[in-house]
Amino acid sequence: MKELLQKNSIRKLLSVALALLLWQAGAVLLDLPLLLVPPLEVLKRLLTLVQEADFWRTLLFSFSRIVLGFAIAFALGCLLGVLSGKWPLLETLLWPYVITIKTVPVASFIILSLFFLSARRLSTFISFLMVFPVIYSNVLEGIRSTDRELLEMGQVFRIPWGRRLGYIYLPHLKPFLFSACSVALGMSWKSGVAAEVIGVASGSIGEKLYESKIYFMTEDLLAWTVVIVLISVLFEKLFLRLMKAAFDRWEGR
Amino acid sequence: MAIVIHNLTKSYGDKLALPPFSCTLEAGERVCLLGQSGCGKTTLLRLLLGLDTPTGGRVTGLPDRISAVFQEDRLCPSFSAVTNVSLALGRQVPKGEIVALLTDLGLGDALTKPVRALSGGMQRRVAIARSLLMSADLYLMDEPFKGLDEDTRRIVMDLVLARTEGKTVLVITHDPEEAAYLGGRVIRM
What CATH number does the domain containing A92 carry? Predict the structure, then answer.
């Protein structure tokens, strides 16, 4: 039993069970099912929802758009982060945009973006916007803090820049990328769904949340929230695992 | 062509890292630079490698292709010994030659292991192999045999002597025995 409890996954599972128990206790004590639905009711609603074809369509709609936004931000953040590390002028040129994206509230961006983007595409753009500065800043930080001694070695042996990137910079970037992605993946879901809610994107999870609020369907609201949490966590785990596998493969050379 | 170092000096603010230093390295000559810690040996090497700018003096006749063994190993820790060496050399040296030299240096069983999993002495040998396999006109070696046990040191020194035959070599050391074994001219700093 003691050994079992020492396993991180078991401990996490137990803490989730405890949180659910607290939720259940809160719901029973408050006895206001319209405001705080018991977890079992939410689970029942969720089980009903997953049997509907519309559920999967909605999930795919939001997933594809939010993940696309994340993917573009990841690729562009890495590229521009690396290039800014190489050319400080680029970093200076990008600075106003990065600082603006970092400081302006996401709601302002969503409302502003609605003027020139359709609500159906909004989540991609907003997710991109929230993820990009995180990836970019971390990659830039990683590039800047790369081991000076190794860079000097590269200079003396005249190692071409592309190879320095792959063998000197990339392994050093690894912890920066992992830390950036674990933050950014959650952010992409939070901001993407927020964009769908504000834009009332037809066929999206955000629209379902919006409808739940309008019609006071707390069960639905919580069921969809659980879906967002689950899909976000699963995607984060999958993405980080794939990234780790890619790094292991590269470094195993 | 001889390499002429004339009154080369380096200061970091008020701190004098290298007092004015002059010497001439004839083409194909092996020179051992002996001196106590902190006398500026490594600073001199950094200046010759172009990693620092001198405060005063000048160097003429420096060849284009310079190979080095740094005081630290400076290896990419997550990659194997073979990858570390081929990374620095590109396609100029076939993989077979890299494997052969690493094997001669006693690393035959550790070729594909990440270098961070190797002992300090093994990592040192990888750094030496990387330098020796580079086709260079000047070899600068900063305490290259540091951390090697007595037997391995002899083997590695013999390999260095054989591989750099006829090349200009500057070895920094503070071990007079090592300098005597390597032969060539000894300069005390």
Answer: 1.10.3720.10
